[in-house]
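pinning this so it doesn't scroll away 📌
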Amino acid sequence: MLKSEIEDKILNIFKLEVEVSQAVVSTLIESMSKAISMNDRVEIRGFGSFFKKEYKSYLGRNPKTGESVNVPEKILPLFRPSKELLYKLNNLEND
């Protein structure tokens, strides 16, 4: 689902103007991004949680040449689905 599709759903459900639905979705995404970057966990009950994880640097290997390469430390955003979402996904696959 694209950002524009979410905006359209909000537009149709709440009978809002296009600019308002776009502002709602943009504000939500900006707020979540800011919270995650400030090391806060964003939890949406029944859906899952978003958080960041820091990885230390390590010595890796280039698979093509076999040469050792230093991989720098990095921070990645992660998503952990809720039990409810996992249950829905697994039941849909079994039907």
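📌 and the second one:
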Amino acid sequence: MVDNAASGADLSRVWKVLREAGLTALIAGFLAVPLIGLRTIGGRDGMAVESRWDMLMIAVAVVFTGRLVLIALRRVLPRLGAGVGKIGSFGTLFARHRSGLAGLALALALALPLMPFSDRYLVDIATLVLIYVMLGWGLNIVVGLAGLLDLGYVAFYAVGAYSFALLGTVYEWSFWACLPVAGACAAAFGILLGYPVLRLRGDYLAIVTLGFGEIIRVVLTNWVEFSGGPNGIASIPRPTLLGLEFSRRAPEEQSFHHFFDIDYSGDHRITFLYYVILLLALLTNLFVLRIRKLPLGRAWEALREDEIACRALGINPVNTKLSAFALGAMFGGFAGSFFASRSGFISPESFTFIESALILSIVVLGGMGSQIGVVLAAAAIILVPEFLREFSEYRMLAFGAAMVLIMIWRPRGLLAHRAPTVSLGQSGARP
């Protein structure tokens, strides 16, 4: 009796899965009839309709099989994630070997341009990854630590880029002189955004920040006298090493290759830019790790958990939110300044909502509040499309499928588990 009941339950589950996959394939087939099953062809006698039922049946079969695979993965991957959690989650493993892994990652990052397999393309891609790592760490202050959903973070990225571009082209300021100014301008815009939205939470805050990002982009597009409009700003100065330029046409006393008596190579500038963004990213990481242990960082985390409890404890939510917006925007401004200097040209098309969504996806995919998770997520989101570039238009489809599978397997991010910033043992209190 028990075996018959078990087999009946198994048959019922199988029938339910097949019915769901069949219904999905039927709907897809109905919708695909005018797109795949029928095609118009032209001839001497006029237009005619050609049927392609074989292609339609192949598409229906692919949808049916894909739905079965997704149902299986939906049931298998959470169990796999639970099994990994029992053995030891990613966060626990990183916590146990944090110092060793951090030292190894730093050594690899420093030695990357010097590796035998390194070339200009690899170093340039690594530089792009570090830009998004820095942006992810900046947004992580607002979203991961303070719990404020910001969909307009690209606005601060744009403010930093245009601040340096205008100061560098109009007043001929150097990159190092403009860098703190760009960060300060972005922080001021962070306060300007944060003050009117102090009472908003959740979706309402997200909508307002999204609107702020679009306002900045529209202003940069239409204010032609100030920002160049859609034409952008070109001939932006490059960073220099103690006044030495990485250019063939620079004066001998101001050129890098003449000063060190070496042959000119365009790889010198690429390598120098890589080390500049690596230094900025490391300083950002050190700053965030340090401030998390200070009262301000603890106030951010308390605000994220419960704003009402924060008010009861005497924490000023106004100052706490404004500080999160300002500091997060400041690092976005630093990254924008470097982006403008690296590219040599910027335009409003570089600062669309897609960039904000990409940076936010890095924070969410890496795990809210996780510094190492941001690095892993930024590397995955930037490198996977690059590795799939040979697949042409199908690479984004594969990338989207990989993102879906990761979020099914790890719905709270790659490194969702994170040890508390301050524990009872650290503070000396007894349980």
